[in-house]
Sequence to fold (463 residues):
Amino acid sequence: MRQRVIVIITLIAVVLVLVLLNAASYVKVEPTADSEAAPDRSTFNAGATGTRALYDFLHESAFQVARWRDSTASLLSHTGPKPATVVVIGDTRIPFSKTETKEMLQWVESGGRLVLIDRSPDRNLLPDSGEWTINTHVISFPWPELDPTDFQAMTNGVKSLVPSQATFFARDVDKIMPSRFAGAITIAAREKKNQKSGHSNASSEGEDEDSFSEPPPASEDSTASNAPKLSPAPVVSVADERGALLIDYPHGKGRIVLLADPYIVANNGINRADNLQLAINVVAGGGGLIAFDEFHQGRASTHNALIQYFEGTPILAICAQLALIGLAIVWSRGTRFARPLPLPQVDRRSSLEFVTSMAELQQRARAHDLALENIYARVRRVLVRHAGLNNNSPRGEIAMRVALRSKLDRNQLESLMRSCEDIINGAPTNAKETLRLVRQLRQIEASLGLQGRARDARQSEQA
Fold:
């Protein structure tokens, strides 16, 4: 017991030392300030470059918003809720793979609405619309030392813009204030390849009007329907002298919306002019569930929330060290450092073990005669001793002597002895008959006081 107390005290001391060492060596990691050169556009980020303000405003305004933390494959699954609009903001920390791009565009083709808000979005997420190609380019790039909270530095030399035409995105929007680092969207038509191999460049320059390919002929199914056909040409809602700032165009049954300046929806620019109203029109214009992509922002749901909560604290190191201590204790307890000690020999035998074993054996073997022989032989020896005769005396004489010395009936006693001896000698019997004879033998012993405990008590009284 004393050794165990010493071990417990030692373990407690080791744990306290580890806790003190971890607390002393812990250095609080200061969060890095937001930078426009490497922004964090997540809706979890409440800093200048984050989009927490837009998400909270939509949520408190009773819009259906959610943080989408699953992969794009879940958009095509048949289980779980499906968003009507997916919003991808900024240069994501985890780029879209080819498979994810294909799945995203397939979801848009089936009727989804994709909103891209970035100065230079992934080109693979901007498929051509009919004969039109969409490209973006950036003229001015932010530098690392730029303070994103400085309004003058972010909008130096930039004038507010008014909507180019009365589209849905321009509803209740008088003017917006983009940043000086906004991208420019260019829309160009793909040129038709010359069908004649000998066609000269001069003739192609003189036929500018015929340089575009004709739209494909309408199929029979489309001509049969009365629904109007949508134009594949992108619609420009906001533009400046450099190019378009906000466009949208159809893709399959869905639509793709492109806003070339994240500053309009970010925390540091959403309160400027009518940027908030434009952000609401762009993001929530399609109705239904709005899902902000957090999977590609590095906040996938596969991460352990508990580990993320304690990340950067000494708690994880302390738990790991305690686990190592536990493993060391288990290993030391299971390792032998000396010769093996013999196991203690415990005597399991008892006075009734033999009797119990024989009784069970005779019961299973249905050896009723053998069980009766064991009991009758002992009772006969007791009766012979009580009568003052020897073991060779006949049962009639034994019964007569016992009857003279007690109140037992001679004929009943002699008949009982005869029945027992007949069964022992091979007469047929059963368990019920054997039990009846044994019960009578026990009653004779009890009436004569010849049982073991009664005899011992009588002898002790006489002494």
